[in-house]
Design a protein that fits this description.
Layout (H helix, E strand, L loop, with lengths): L7 E10 L5 E6 L4 E5 H7 L6 E3 H22 L4 H10 L4 H13 L5 H14 L4 H10 L4 H10 L4 H8 L8 H13 L4 H9 L15
Antiparallel strand pairs: 1-2, 1-4, 2-3
């Protein structure tokens, strides 16, 4: 890891930074700035007017960042992107966040494939279709090829899962069937699966045209 830039001086200002109050920005009297975690700030008992060497800050950040990462992965499976993002949001430097996650990967505490399989299984059990699951995996930083492979490996009948999503409701009119199809497609099922599910619910009334998924 590259060394942090050595900057020191008196603290002029400490302010919150980032999307939450877990990160803060330290501004020195000479205008130099450094973002860090509120956890680290409190551990060093820093306040405006105090003298600070950024090397001291860096030394305190490394163990604090690792402990934060351990807490994140101890509660549930997370992807490497999720953990890195949470560490950065907490104020830790990008490089430290990446190095910390790399360490967790080496220890087997973070595994993108394991995370992806667990999430895919959970979402399929909740009634979501392949496209919706793939899109969510992509959003969490799972490579597209791995996401497609994992979703394809799911041993589930898309028609059966889609049918369970309707929760026993049997649409009868053209309007009801169109709404049901739109719901299934929003949940990630293909138009073909939606058509098969709705065709299996029984014939429409005689004055209605057969359903066609658009």
């Amino acid at each position: 890891m590259k060394p942090f830039v050595v900057t020191q001086g008196n603290i002029a200002l400490i302010e919150y930074a980032g999307p939450n109050r877990r990160a803060c920005r330290i501004v020195l009297e000479d205008g130099s700035t450094r973002t860090t975690s509120m956890t680290v700030l409190r551990s060093l008992e820093l306040a405006p007017g105090d003298s600070l060497d950024f090397r001291t800050l860096a030394a305190a950040e490394s163990p604090a960042c690792y402990e934060h990462a351990l807490r994140l992965v101890s509660s549930r499976e997370r992807s490497t992107r999720q953990v890195e993002s949470r560490l950065r949001d907490a104020g830790y430097p990008d490089e430290l966040a990446r190095d910390t996650v790399a360490r967790l990967v080496e220890l087997g505490l973070v595994d993108d494939e394991r995370f992806a399989r667990a999430l895919a299984c959970t979402r399929r059990g909740a009634g979501y279709g392949p496209r919706r699951i793939r899109d969510e995996l992509f959003s969490h930083g799972i490579p597209r090829e791995l996401a497609r492979h994992i979703v394809a490996d799911e041993d589930s009948d898309d028609v059966a899962v889609a049918r369970s999503t309707l929760r026993g409701v049997v649409p009868t009119t053209r309007t009801e069937r169109s709404r049901a199809a739109a719901r299934l497609i929003r949940r990630g099922f293909s138009p073909e699966v939606a058509r098969r599910v709705l065709d299996a619910t029984g014939p429409e009334s005689a004055d209605e045209q057969p359903f066609v998924a658009e």
